[in-house]
Fold:
Amino acid sequence: MNLGNRRLTNVDLAAALVACGCREPRIYQASGNAVVEDPRGPEALRAAVEEGLATALGYSVPTFVRSADAVRAIASADPFPGRQMGGKLQVGILRQAPSGEARSLVASLDGEADALALGEQELFWWPSGSILDSSLDLKALERALGPWTQRTHGTVQRLTKKYFS
Structure:
């Protein structure tokens, strides 16, 4: 989930997810990462969670759903083999697969200061330093790719190790 600058306790997030029909949600860190088992398909689950959270919290919460296999694939991805950068590898979890136009934009922005690559529904971004120091045009990327939520690759790896190994 993309909570933006809002803060939500793990207990409150879990309670809101239960109210959406999710059984035994497990919350990872205090940044909107939730692991649920649910029979609904990804789109139905996403829609139910977004609607339920908006009702429970009073504001919209863009939600991004991935299967355990997809999370494992992201955690094991090596989008920049042999390349070394100074910053932390970031993963943008996208709503949908990038269009050809979006893929072209990402390829054009890949460079020395900011390494960029696309997965099936992910943007991999490896800045040369802090993400705050990057001059990457994130607004242009969001216009091309649609909304996303961002985590460090390390966070995805730790979540995978805890829940999906």
In short: The chain is about 40% helix and 20% strand. The chain has a mean pLDDT of 93.
